[in-house]
Design goal:
Length: 403
C-alpha cells in the first residue's frame, strides 16, 4: 500500500482504473457464453423464443446506456469524474448481485436495464486519464487503459464460462458483484482527482461541444467506426453457446467451450495490442486501423464455413488480432483530437455509440440467424467491416499525415 501511494498520481490512477475497466468489461461480457442457457432455465421456450429473449436480455443494458451516457458525462463536469466512477461501480455491483436471484426472464431483463443505467465507468475512466496524464505520456496511458477495456470485454466470456461451469449461473453473478464492489473500494481509497467543477449555468450544450472540436468530422467518424466495430463484435453474442452446441452436436460441456470460444479474441488482443501500439507509433495509427479492417474481412468470410469448434476457435483468435489493431488505435486517435476541457463529454458520447453498436450487434445477429442460420452472421459481419473501412478512410483523411 505504501508503494502504491508513492506512485505519481496519474500512474496510480492508471493502475487502479485499469483494473476497474478490466473488471467492468468482464462484467458486461461474461454473460455471453451462458446468458441464453440461463434464460432457458427461467421458463419453457421454443427455439425462436429463446433466441429472442436471450438477445433482448443481452442488449437491454446497452440500450439504456445509449440514453444515459451523455447525462453522466455532463454530470461529471459538474460533480467530478471520481464520483461518477464510484456511482457506476457501486450501482453495477448491486445490479449484478440481484441478477443471481431472479425467478423469471423479465426480472433478468429489468436488472440488465439497471446495469446499463449505472454504467459510465469506462467513459469516465478514459476521461480522467486523458485529462490527468502529462501530454508526453498520454498515448502510453490511454493505450494501457484501452487494453484493459478490450481485454475485459473479450476475456469476460471465458471467465463467465469457467465460473458457470465450476459454480453455477447464479453464483457467477454474485461473484461479479463482489468484484465490482472491490473496484468501488479501490477507487474510493486510491484514486485521486483535483477537480475544478464547471458552474451549473456554464456547462456546454451539445452544439457548443461540437464547435470546440478541432476536427469534428474526424471525431464523429471515429464514433461511427467504434459503433460498427462493436456491432460486429457483439453480433455473435446471443447465439455463441447455441452455435457451439450445434457444431459439437450437443456433446461436451457447452458452457465451458462457448466461454473458451468467446474468449479467443480477448486472448489475442492482450498479446497483440501492445505490439500494434508500438508499430502504430512508427508507421501511423491510422494505417494500423486500415490494415486491421483488411485482416478482419478475410477472417470473417471463412468463419461462416467452419465445421468444428476447433476451427471456430482458431478464427476467433485471429479476430482478436484484428481487434487489437483497431479498438485501441481508434480510442487513442479520439483522445489525441479532443480538447481537454470537453474530454468527459466526448468520451461519454463515444460510449453511447459503443452502446448503439452493442445493441445493433445482437439484433443483427438475431435477425440474420433467423433468416440465414448462425453462419450468415459472419458474412454479414464481413460486409459491415468492408463498409467500416471505407467510412474510416474517408472520414479520417483530414488527419492522415498526423496519425
Amino acid at each position: 500500500m505504501q508503494k502504491l501511494n508513492q506512485l505519481e498520481t496519474w500512474r496510480r490512477n492508471l493502475f487502479i482504473l485499469w483494473f476497474g475497466v478490466f473488471m467492468t468489461g468482464i462484467g458486461f461480457s461474461e454473460v455471453m457464453p451462458f446468458l441464453s442457457l440461463y434464460v432457458d432455465t427461467l421458463g419453457h421456450f421454443t427455439k425462436n423464443e429463446l433466441t429472442f429473449y436471450s438477445g433482448l436480455a443481452f442488449l437491454m443494458s446497452f440500450l439504456v446506456q445509449i440514453f444515459v451516457s451523455p447525462l453522466w458525462g455532463k454530470l461529471a463536469d459538474l460533480k467530478g469524474r471520481k464520483l461518477m466512477l464510484l456511482r457506476a461501480a457501486f450501482g453495477m455491483a448491486i445490479a449484478f448481485s440481484l441478477m443471481g436471484t431472479v425467478t423469471n426472464v423479465w426480472e433478468l431483463i429489468g436488472l440488465r436495464a439497471l446495469q446499463g443505467f449505472f454504467g459510465g465507468f469506462i467513459s469516465n475512466a478514459n476521461a480522467m486519464i486523458a485529462a490527468q496524464t502529462p501530454k508526453e505520456h498520454s498515448g502510453y496511458a490511454l493505450g494501457i487503459l484501452v487494453t484493459g477495456i478490450t481485454a475485459g470485454n473479450l476475456l469476460g466470456p471465458f471467465v463467465g464460462g469457467v465460473l458457470a461451469s465450476i459454480v453455477s449461473y447464479r453464483m457467477a453473478f454474485f461473484i461479479t458483484g463482489v468484484i465490482l464492489l472491490l473496484v468501488f473500494v479501490l477507487v474510493l481509497i486510491f484514486v485521486k482527482e483535483e477537480f475544478n467543477p464547471v458552474a451549473r449555468g456554464e456547462t456546454l450544450s451539445r452544439r457548443e461541444v461540437v464547435a470546440k472540436l478541432p476536427y469534428p468530422r474526424v471525431t464523429i467518424g471515429l464514433f461511427i467506426t467504434t459503433m460498427i466495430v462493436m456491432t460486429v463484435n457483439t453480433s455473435i453474442s446471443p447465439i455463441v453457446s447455441l452455435f457451439v452446441r450445434e457444431l459439437n452436436h450437443g456433446a461436451g460441456n457447452t458452457t465451458f467451450l462457448a466461454g473458451v470460444i468467446a474468449a479467443m479474441p480477448g486472448i489475442a488482443t492482450v498479446i497483440a495490442a501492445p505490439r500494434f501500439g508500438r508499430l502504430g507509433d512508427k508507421i501511423g495509427t491510422r494505417r494500423i486501423v486500415l490494415y486491421g479492417f483488411i485482416l478482419a474481412f478475410w477472417i470473417f468470410i471463412p468463419t461462416s464455413f467452419v465445421t468444428s469448434v476447433l476451427q471456430l476457435g482458431i478464427l476467433r483468435f485471429m479476430v482478436g488480432i484484428s481487434d487489437a489493431s483497431m479498438l485501441p488505435a481508434v480510442q487513442t486517435m479520439l483522445a489525441k483530437t479532443t480538447p481537454q476541457e470537453i474530454t468527459s463529454r466526448v468520451f461519454a458520447y463515444n460510449q453511447s455509440f459503443q452502446a448503439i453498436g452493442a445493441v445493433a450487434g445482437p439484433l443483427l445477429g438475431t435477425v440474420v440467424a433467423s433468416y440465414f442460420d448462425y453462419r450468415g452472421i459472419f458474412i454479414a459481419s464481413a460486409m459491415l467491416i468492408a463498409l467500416n473501412a471505407i467510412l474510416f478512410y474517408v472520414n479520417t483523411r483530414e488527419i492522415a499525415t498526423e496519425n
